Amino acid sequence: MKAGFIGRQKELRLLDRLWASNRAEFLILYGRRRVGKTALLTHWIRKTGRRALYWVASPDSALAQLRSFSREVYNFAHPDTPAPEQFTYASWEQAWQEVARLAEQERMALFIDEFTYLLEVTPALASYLQHFWDRIFQNSDLFLCVSGSHMGMMMREVLSYQAPLYGRATAQMHLRPLPFGLTRMAFPNYSAVDRVGLYAIFGGIPAYWERIDLEKSVSQNIKDQLLTANNLMQVEPRLLLQDFISEIHNYWAVLTAIANNARTPKEISAYTGISNVHVPKYLSVLSEAGFVERHISIMAAPNSRTGRQHITDPYLRFYFRFLASRERQLAMDVPDQALAEISRHMIDFIGTHTWEELCREWTLRASATNELPFLPDEVGSAWNADAQIDVAGINTMEKTLILGECKWTLSPVDQDVLTKLVEEKTPRIAPAQGNWRIFYLGFSRSGWTKEALAYQKSIVKQKIPRKNWQVSGMYLLDLNQVDRDLERWSTQVEADQDKIEL
After folding, report:
1. Tens digits of per-residue pLDDT, 162-201?
2. What is the 3-state secondary structure (H, E, C) of 36-105?
3. Does residue 268 lie in a domain region?
4. Whole-angstrom Cα distance, residue 190 to residue 358?
5. What is the pTM of this model?
6. What are residue 30's DSSP bridge partners?
7. What DSSP string describes 195-206?
8. Are strands 171-174 and 52-56 parallel, antiparallel or unpaired?
9. C-beta separation of 52 from 112 below 8 A
10. Residue 367 belongs to what H/E stretch?
């Protein structure tokens, strides 16, 4: 990908605000591997030209880490006189003392990247930094940031209530994947269908986007990046899991089960052979890691036991569905067979996961910008023993519902899908108590037939008696409309943030 740094205006604005503060600031930056933490920090330094020292730790010995940091600090303080090869301060406290001295002269930023590498070999370092912050740094003109990709260690050693640094940070940032709305900027040569396909595989991870060759087709990129022997993406799931756990086998089995439609602890137990008693423990860890979520129908009570487990990380979802069982095949370097199998199932895979997620995102954003008549408290899906609705938003105070169907088909969708939604599914899903107003949405990759569009126009005029609800309207969209809107909202947010910053 040649588009360069994309998005992150909100995050850059936070860095600007912390720099402009008239006090010491301490930012904790965290997020999954490859999400762009290093790119964010280094881009901010290049963009602003601020007086900043960026240093990235390595998985080295304690002495080598201290020596490396010491040399960077020395060279920052003496730009015309490079540090001797074996130069090092005697301790971290002495090195930080030099940083504090440099921050006395004028405002200074210190970014320590991959902080968890330091904690792996010197676990007490967080305590040392806490004491030094309390005594020295918080009274200086320093903007300090520590960041890390080892999410488990960041949670335990930096962010948790028991962590030494708890309460010291003046700001924290969980850097999340980029939204689909920025894919047109990143992949201008690809159609909306191709970009949805890429997003279904790689999600919003910038490091994955950079691997895409814009001169090649999506299919060829999949072959090159995922289906060749010894490709780097094959080891990515293990690296992500090892950031949280050392023994990954049962977690691997649970993710494989969920990717193959085992959605409840009972189904996961049957698929994996893991005791039904132990499955919740593995799900809990995967949930804390952000890899798995338990979804419940928005019509169900919060403590409902009808939840379904979903893999939230797109690449893990794709990997455990299509690649985990093909390691031997990929090792033999026969990608065409694997690509053909993926192609046969990709339409269903996208329709079940990514397309529905994008439609729910559209519903949330449209509601927030007053482009829908109702503002839901939450948006998800709704189901019970009698019906399933892909997109559902509810506002219990206003007694309003948004209900929608999502179709990722190659041909336009006919009226019968809408008729079934209104006449069959709604009575089975809508709350039995209260008087409700319902607005309907239809999302179709390939658009709608003339009959469906005519039904959309006539639905409000229908005077069919309802038990305790009435139709407020219907809006039908195709992929191109969803694509344009998500791009518009994403870039509009970026522009608005720049406007506020000025």
Report:
1. 888 888 999 999 999 999 999 999 999 999 999 999 999 9
2. CHHHHHHHHHHHHCCCEEEEECCCCCHHHHHHHHHHHHHHHHCCCCCCCCCCCCCCHHHHHHHHHHHHHH
3. yes
4. 18
5. 0.92
6. 148, 174
7. HHHHHHHHTT-H
8. unpaired
9. no
10. helix 354-368
pLDDT tens across 325-375, in order? 887 777 777 778 888 889 999 999 999 999 999 999 999 999 999 999 999
Q: Is 12 in contact with 50 (CB distance < 8 Å)? A: no
C-alpha distances in angstroms, 124 versus 68, 156, 276?
A: 19, 13, 38
3-class DSSP state of 30: strand
Q: Give the pLDDT score at 502.
A: 31
Alpha-carbon span 426 to 419, nearest angstrom: 10
Answer with the one of 308, 323, 352 that is the final residue of a domain: 352
CA atoms within 13 A on the CB side of 441: 30
List, as one string, the DSSP characters of 242-276: HTT-S--HHHHHHHHHHHTT--SHHHHHHHH---T
Sign of CA dihedral 440, 444, 448, 452: negative
Is the confidence at residue 500, as pLDDT, over 70?
Answer: no
Q: Hey, what are 423's tokens?
A: 């006449």
Give the residue from 433, 423, 388 showing the smallest Cα distance to 406: 388
The pLDDT tens digits for 28-67 are 999 988 999 999 999 999 999 999 999 999 999 999 999 9
Q: Given CA atoms 217, 220, 222, 224 in this order, what sign does their dihedral have? A: negative
Residue 45's CATH number = 3.40.50.300
Total domain count, the chain: 3
Two structure tokens written together for 271: 């698929």
**Residues with Cβ within 8 Å of residue 287, at least 6 apart in sequence:** 293, 294
**Residue 215 maps to a domain:** no
Distance from C-alpha of 22 to C-alpha of 8, rounded to nearest angstrom: 24
Task: Output b/e per residue, 54-81; b: 16+ Cβ within 10 A.
Answer: bbbbeeeeeeebbbbbbbbbbebeeeee
CA contacts within 13 A on the Cβ side of 417 = 25
Which two structure tokens, joined as six digits, stand for 109?
């930023």
**Domain, as residue range, for 237:** 227-352
* Amino acid residing at 147: S
Helix (H) / strand (E) containing 436: strand 436-444
Of the candidates 456, 435, 460, 438, the residue with the CA atom closest to the CA atom of residue 447: 456
CA distances from 395 to 188, 294, 370, 401 (A): 38, 21, 15, 7
Asked if residue 464 is part of any domain, the answer here is yes
> In one letter, which amino acid is 242?
Q
Q: What is the pLDDT of residues 424-467, one digit of tens each?
A: 999 999 998 999 999 999 999 999 999 999 999 998 777 666 78
SS3 labels along 113-147: ECHHHHHHHCCCHHHHHHHHHHHCHHHCCEEEEEE
